[in-house]
Specification:
CATH class of chain A: Alpha Beta
Number of helices of chain A: 10
Mean pLDDT of chain B: 95
CATH architecture of chain A: Alpha-Beta Barrel
Number of helices of chain B: 28
Helix content of chain B: 40-55%
Largest interface: A-B, 36 and 43 residues
Number of strands of chain B: 20
Distance between the termini of chain A: 46 Å
Strand order of the largest sheet of chain B: 4-5-6-7-17-16-20
Oligomer: heterodimer
Strand order of the largest sheet of chain A: 3-1-2-4-5-6-7-8
Distance between the termini of chain B: 64 Å
Mean pLDDT of chain A: 90
Low-confidence stretches of chain B: 1-5
Order of helices and strands of chain A: HEEEHHEHEHEHHEHEHH
Largest sheet of chain B: 7 strands, mixed
Structural class of chain A: alpha/beta
Helix content of chain A: 25-40%
Structural class of chain B: alpha/beta
CATH superfamily of chain A: Aldolase class I
CATH topology of chain A: TIM Barrel
Low-confidence stretches of chain A: 1-13
Largest sheet of chain A: 8 strands, mixed
Number of strands of chain A: 8
Radius of gyration of chain B: 25 Å
Strand content of chain B: 5-15%
Strand content of chain A: 15-25%
């Protein structure tokens, strides 16, 4: 915050507004990132019904170890273009929206990218939100689940766990990484009775084989803490981002998932006794 | 006690009602507060349409509405200047019309209302393929002076210059001003004999005072009001009702009230002819008849459906040019509902539910313009029903009960889109709006028009040199230019309302007001988001003007990033707030006609398209000739942090600087509200609760997919009833011009991440 601009001989005073020109914020040092006081942010959003219950302040943190073929935010893969932000600035916005969270049944979601790529920053934000009584939600692939310590998990009310494929070979094809860490993280969450919503992206020709869907469903059904499964139909809204980034996009010709395809997938999840709204 | 106390009809009319101040003075609010029953339950009790409802609606659709859609105007009477008693009775379907009364003798047939101005009538007739009766033309061009004639006798050169350069557009100088809500309930509650007796007493209240123009006008206006009330009695008689006495049943209460409203739309074609705040009032009568066993829920719903059917077929003779400003043939039969009473009881009744149910029973439609005074503490069953109907129809809008009640009390209603007023105690002098965005370009160019290059305003220095714009210098010049623009604008409004009172006085509407009322001057601005973003660009990025060969700045080169209004970023939002306050302070400094209270709205109706057309390019990157975003909306597509963040930004604008309302129209896709209906309902309730808590005044909510609208542009026949909310009102999408349809499609669709 800075003082008013001085306007000579003027009837209307300019109100004090934060002015980065006259008060450039200090740039974070490497240790600020290491210790979680600062982080790399891609963007933020107040969105409804997408990243957990109610209307949620969602911070999309930059950087991800996976390279999913269908990623609709490939601009979150790296951290070079991301904004360097202070945790306290993000916490100020959480405080501002606190009463809205109460009214909408919403809260804070950390998404990405992969929030667990910045474990100290993520842990600090959840810590503070939880202290404020804000409902917290981690949106993750689970690949870096080992970096979430027990204290961080205690500060998280709900985990949105992306289960992108049901076996190692397809998982590798979809994400370039291995499935095992995600399953280990899922088992750990189950042991802690931590509420989990499974998210499964239905990509025609890639993840839509009934065998794959069944394999995902069986794994999800084995975890009694899974409260819900969301089947997310693949869409092409991210296509232009791949082009802008000059990255090879393998799904350029893949059709968006149809309602019928989604319904078939939903039926498979339901047949395993899973709660699958829609 | 009222004079007619002893009449048996009065005793019968008031049976079972709790007495109060309303028995001693005309005070409908008190009657409501003493007698209404809040309803805390859900929508399960509601009834579907009866055979009569369906029969009338089908006749209307098959014989009239479908014809009108093909030819724009169904029919016009070219011989009979409109008045309360000018036409013989007409019916949609005489056997099944539960609530009767048409503006003319045939549904959808329009009438001439030449008091506003003859040219408008003649043009509208020509556009409808008709010709005026030469006798009527002679009367209104030779013998009878119109409002429009009066205004142009008085207009000053600077007003003419501002009009021709489109810095001011759409002034009510050739059409009815509207935004006056008669307290139509008074006819049902008191009967016209009593209302006339009170008016006579008021008329002579100051009889001992010495002559003054004010004194004479007071007496003359009340005389006009009494004459209008007598015509309303005759109108009732023609349909077989005795309106001299109070209504005895619920059916009569609705019928009496409707006939009073009908009298106003028979005699005035004001831009917005709003209906008021009626649900709790009607509900008292419904509850009594239900308790007495003379009415069933089916019957109650049938009455409301029949009333709403009538409110959907009001028609005025308009020109195509008028349609640019007020697109889609609207008349704003705005029906305000819900909110809280001052005593803390919710003013939600079963009739509030019945009103919303009409959108299911009759299908979606833009009128009446259903306006919910939202408060997060209203009963949950009602909030959820509102949200469900919004999701199904996109036909209702929400305004902050807290803002309205704290300023205008618990018997206020909205006129038009967002203009609140105490029913029967207050009217607005409607002022359209001034182009606040173009004013910024005038400031930079020293009063030269950026489109034509003409010098419109003299005595102001342009910004010189080719260097980047300096925020402080631009702000200083903008502030100076606004002084000229607002001064010219308000001068025009004073003239307009002086003439409107003289030549096109709304006698029947004013007869249903107290004799001494509050007036507000409803000024307004367009282009707020463009100014905010442009000022932000000048302040936080580098903006270099681009000049043509004559030195006129016609475009800007903007380098670097800057905060954008609509994303809950104080740096940009404070600039929007500052512009609103600055304009308001300038209005406040000017003496207003009839000592009106100065107010402004941030609302564009559909003038955002014409205003955009007449305006050049901006530092924000807004391109020359393209539509403004509507009302106080952020720039289309630039509020990228979600619908609530956009609501929070708009909610920062101080309501005290825009007492006539701050309009935000939002569109969200169904998927972005949730995966299924219950989730969507509960999420929409939460969004409205949270938005209003953060100061938002108005939420005009569409729940739509862009694809639906795109399909409707190409295949209008598939979507005859597709309703979208544009800017404080709803329209049939297919009635918009193609340009306006594309504007709606280009707006932000909040889709989630």
């Amino acid at each position: 915050m800075t003082a008013c601009l001085h306007l000579p001989n003027h009837s209307t005073a300019i109100p004090p507004v934060p002015d980065p020109l006259s008060a450039p914020p200090a740039k974070p040092e490497p240790r600020d990132f290491r210790e979680g006081r600062a982080g790399f942010l891609h963007s933020w959003d107040m969105v409804t019904a997408v990243n957990g219950p109610g209307t949620r302040l969602t911070y999309f943190l930059a950087g991800c170890p996976l390279r999913c073929q269908y990623c609709h935010n490939p601009d979150t893969f790296g951290q070079d273009q991301a904004e360097q932000v202070w945790a306290e600035d993000l916490i100020r916005r959480i405080r501002r929206y606190q009463s809205s969270f109460n009214l909408t049944g919403g809260g804070l979601t950390l998404s990405g990218g992969e929030p667990l790529l910045q474990p100290a920053f993520t842990a600090g934000l959840f810590r503070e939100a939880h202290r404020l009584g804000v409902h917290t939600c981690l949106d993750t692939s689970g690949f870096l689940g080992a970096l979430a310590d027990d204290q961080m998990l205690a500060d998280i009310d709900l985990v949105l766990l992306d289960l992108k494929a049901g076996d190692e070979s397809l998982y590798r094809q979809v994400t370039t990484q291995t499935l095992a860490p995600t399953l280990a993280f899922g088992n750990r969450l189950a042991a802690l009775h931590k509420p989990v919503w499974i998210r499964f992206v239905l990509v025609p020709g890639l993840t839509d084989h009934p065998d794959n869907i069944r394999a995902v469903a069986l794994k999800a059904a084995a975890w009694p803490n899974v409260a819900r499964v969301d089947v997310l139909p693949f869409h092409q809204m991210g296509r232009h981002k791949w082009a802008e980034l000059g990255l090879p996009y393998q799904l350029a010709d893949t059709p968006e998932a149809t309602r019928e395809q989604v319904e078939q997938a939903v039926a498979i999840f339901r047949s395993q006794g899973l709660n699958c709204p829609g | 006690m009222i004079a007619t106390e002893t009449k048996p009809t009065v005793q019968s009319a008031y049976r079972g009602f709790k007495d109060g101040v309303w028995r001693e003075a005309i005070d409908v609010r008190d009657f409501i507060q003493q007698n209404y029953t809040p309803y805390e339950g859900n929508a399960d009790f509601l009834s579907g349409p009866t055979p009569k409802t369906l029969s009338v609606w089908h006749t209307l659709e098959n014989d009239y509405l479908s014809v009108e859609r093909k030819q724009r105007v169904y029919d016009v009477d070219t011989h009979t200047p409109a008045d309360i008693d000018a036409f013989k009775p007409g019916y949609i379907n005489a056997d099944d019309d539960v609530i009767v009364g048409l503006q003319t003798d045939v549904p959808l047939k329009r009438a001439m209302m030449p008091n506003g101005g003859w040219r408008m009538v003649e043009t509208a007739l020509q556009e409808a393929g008709k010709e005026a009766d030469p006798e009527v033309k002679k009367i209104f061009t030779r013998y009878r002076k119109t409002h429009n004639d009066g205004v142009f006798d008085i207009y000053t050169p600077r007003i003419r210059a501002a009009r021709s350069s489109h810095i001011i557009t759409g002034l009510p100088d050739a059409y009815g001003r509207g935004r006056i809500i008669g307290d139509y309930r008074r006819v049902a509650l008191y009967g016209i004999d009593h209302l006339i007796a009170e008016k006579k007493r008021d008329k002579d209240r100051y009889i001992d005072q010495p002559f003054s123009e004010h004194w004479a006008r007071y007496r003359e206006e009340i005389s006009e009001q009494i004459k209008a009330l007598k015509k309303l009695v005759a109108l009732g008689q023609s349909y077989g009702f005795d309106l001299t006495q109070p209504a005895v049943t619920a059916h009569e209460a609705v019928q009496w009230t409707y006939l009073a409203y009908l009298a106003s739309v028979k005699s005035q074609d004001g831009a917005a002819m709003s209906f008021g705040r009626l649900s709790a009032f009607f509900d008292i009568y419904f509850e009594r008849d239900l308790k007495e066993g003379t009415l069933t829920e089916d019957g109650a719903q049938e009455i409301i459906d029949a009333l709403v059917t009538k409110l959907r077929i009001v028609r005025f003779l308009r020109t195509e040019a008028y349609d640019q400003i007020f697109s889609g043939d609207p008349y704003w039969a705005t029906w305000s509902d819900a909110g809280f009473g001052d005593d803390g009881r919710p003013m939600v009744t079963k009739t509030s539910f019945r009103l919303l149910q009409t959108l299911r029973n009759l299908g979606p439609a833009p009128e009446p313009n259903i306006t919910i005074f939202w408060n997060k503490n209203l009963p949950l069953g009602y909030r959820e029903f509102c949200a469900a109907i919004s999701i199904e129809t996109s036909a209702i809008q929400y305004e902050s009960d807290e803002h309205i009640r704290s300023h205008w009390g618990d018997d206020a209603a909205i006129a038009c889109c967002v203009s609140p007023m105490k029913v029967g105690k207050q009217m607005q002098l409607f002022g359209a709006r001034v182009n606040a965005a173009k004013s910024l370009l005038y400031a930079i160019n020293g009063g030269r028009d950026e489109v034509t290059g003409k010098q419109i305003v003299t005595g102001y220095e342009p910004i010189k040199g080719d260097g980047p714009l300096n925020f402080e210098e631009v702000w200083q010049k903008y502030d100076d230019m606004l002084t000229w623009v607002v001064g010219t604008y308000v001068e025009a409004l004073n003239i307009i309302h002086y003439c409107h009172d003289r030549y096109a006085y709304e006698a029947v509407e004013m007869a249903l007001h107290d004799s001494e009322i509050t007036r507000t001057m409803g000024c307004g601005i367009a282009g707020l988001s463009i100014v905010a973003d442009s000022l932000s660009a000048i302040r936080y990025a580098k903006v270099t003007p681009i000049r043509d060969e004559t030195g006129l700045v016609v475009d800007y080169k903007t380098e670097g990033s800057y905060p954008i209004y609509g994303n809950d970023d104080d740096r940009a939002d404070e600039l929007a707030k500052l512009v609103v306050r600055t304009v308001m302070d300038k209005i406040r400094a000017i003496k207003l006609y009839r000592d009106a209270i100065p107010t402004q709205s941030i609302l564009t109706i559909t003038s955002n398209v014409v205003y955009g057309k007449a305006t050049g390019a901006f530092p924000s990157g807004h391109e020359a000739g393209t539509p403004f975003s509507p009302g106080a909306n952020p720039e289309n597509g630039r509020d990228t942090h979600g619908m609530l963040a956009s609501m929070f930004s708009v909610g920062k604008i101080s309501y005290d600087d825009a007492l006539d309302g701050i309009s935000l129209t939002n569109t969200i896709t169904p998927q972005a509200l949730g995966q299924n209906k219950p989730e969507r309902v509960s999420n929409l309730v939460g969004i409205l609760d949270a938005g209003m808590q953060e100061g938002l005044y108005h939420a005009n909510i569409n729940v739509l997919n862009k694809e639906t609208l795109e399909d409707a542009v190409d295949h209008p026949e598939k979507y005859p009833n597709l309703t979208v909310r544009v800017s404080g009102y709803a329209v049939n999408f297919v009635k918009l011009t193609r340009e306006q349809q594309l504007d709606v499609i280009s707006r932000t669709f909040h889709k989630g991440a």
